[in-house]
Structure formats: structure tokens, C-alpha cells
Amino acid sequence: MLIVFETAYSQAQGIERAKISESGTGTLINGVCTVQINAVVDNDTYYVQLTPLENYTELYVFEKNKDSFVVKSKDKSNAKFDYIVVLKRKKDKESTEIGPKKQK
User: Fold this and answer.
1) Which among 20, 22, 35 is positioned nearest to 81, based on CA atoms?
2) Whole-number pLDDT of residue 38
């Protein structure tokens, strides 16, 4: 299932659109969890957003692959977390970048 939502940012001109590819709940075992994803994507074409459940623990995405990503915690806990996989927006010809210009 693909959910599309729109969010307006005050600095952007117009509406920003993101596509949530999938979401779910994972459980760390000794501070590590590999989450399989169904989307066929490259590891640099999606973001992963994590939300710890129950007790707070520091979570981070250790590795992203084409069909999975690895979540780790610094305290080696067995915590649960929710995740959302968001596909990165493709640059289109009319989009305007905001922020400092890259030096060549």
C-alpha cells in the first residue's frame, strides 16, 4: 500500500510531496534489528524515520540496503520501535533548491 501525504514547509515555495513506501513495528534483539522492506529501491533513494516505543532508547539506522535496513541502539536493548520508509523526492526541472550554493 502506498500512502501519499502533502506537507507545506514555510521556507519552500509551494507544496512538498513525500511518498510513504511502508511502515511497521520492529523489535531490537541485543540492540540490533534488520527490517525487510518490500519496495524495490536503491539505498540512497529513501529515508527511514524511527520512533522508540515504551521506554526511550537511542536508535539509529546503521545500514541501508536495497531490500532492508539495520537499526541499532547504543545500549544493546530489546526495545520496540515504529518505522516509516519515505521515498526521496526526485528532483524535477522546476524545483528550486533552498540553502547555500555548493562551491565547485
Assistant:
1) 35
2) 82
Q: With CA atoms as reference, report the closest residue to 55 among 79, 19, 38.
A: 79
pLDDT by residue (tens digit) across 74-97? 888 899 999 999 887 766 444 445
With a pLDDT cut of 70, the percent of the chain lying above it is 63
Q: Checking phi first, is residue 99 left (phi over 0); if not, alpha (psi -120 to 50) or beta? A: left
Asked whether the beta carbons of 4 and 19 are under 8 A apart, the reply is yes
| Burial profile 35-70: b = 16 or more Cβ within 10 angstroms, e = fewer | bebeeebeeeebebebebeeeebebeeeebeeeebe
**43 closest CA partner among 16, 57, 61, 20:** 61
Helices vs strands, H then E, count in the chain: 0, 7
Nearest CA to 87 among 26, 41, 37, 24? 41
Average pLDDT, the chain: 76
